[in-house]
Specification:
This protein is α/β, with parallel strands linked by helices and 201 residues long. Helices cover 37% and strands 16% of the residues. The strands form two sheets. A five-stranded parallel sheet has the order 2-5-1-6-7, with helices on both faces. The longest helix has 18 residues.
């Protein structure tokens, strides 16, 4: 299937509990936008190489991809992605797996006669340099950074995490906010990055 019909790939990123879901809902209200559930595709299956924009597969992403497709109303066999390399420290397969995932999002979007898709996984913030290198100039993704007041975000994240598999201490929530917002600030000069402030919505 041709991907020329896709005019925009959008990743919504930021600190968890900063309003990323709200921004996704607002964008998804547009008739030409296909919105997807949180994939955690890169954050759970790819490891970033230090001081580099490259990443390697840390584990086989195929099972999670199948779950993600079911969450979005599609079922595909587990063979949709190649197995992760036996040696987890080899980069072979990482780029191909990532590009395959993007093409699947493209196809699902085009099947609904839409031209823009939105994927929201806050932790994909750190994978922006890697994601930028996956596509040619005609399909480079855009990144929407959602930024919320630190005190409000930390309080919400700390409270919400009590119901997650691993709860966060207040100190770890503060560190997460400082680190993630600091990374977002390094992207302010990029034309592919857009900033939304929760309090201004």
């Amino acid at each position: 299937m041709s991907h020329n019909g896709i005019c925009r790939r959008i990743f919504i990123v930021g600190v968890p509990r900063s309003g990323t879901t709200l921004v996704q809902s607002l964008l998804a209200a547009h008739s030409k936008v296909r919105s997807f559930t949180e994939s955690h595709f890169f954050s759970r299956h790819f490891a970033l190489l230090p001081f580099s924009s490259k990443a390697i597969l840390s584990r086989n992403p195929a099972p999670r991809l199948c779950e993600f497709l079911v969450e979005n109303g599609v079922e595909l066999p587990r063979s949709v992605l190649p197995e992760a390399p036996r040696n987890r420290f080899l980069p072979f397969g990482a780029r191909a797996a990532a590009q395959h995932f993007l093409r699947i999002l493209d196809d699902l979007t085009l099947l609904e006669s839409k031209s823009v898709w939105v994927e929201k996984t806050p932790r994909h913030l750190r994978y922006i340099p890697f994601l930028e290198g996956l596509s040619g100039p005609d399909h480079r993704p855009h990144f929407v950074h959602v930024i919320r007041d630190g005190l409000e975000t930390v309080a919400s994240l700390h409270t919400a995490s009590k119901n997650w598999d691993h709860s966060y201490t207040v100190e770890s929530c503060i560190k997460r906010w400082n680190t993630d917002v600091g990374f977002s600030l390094t992207r302010v000069t990029s034309r592919a990055d857009h900033f939304v402030f929760y309090e201004q919505l």
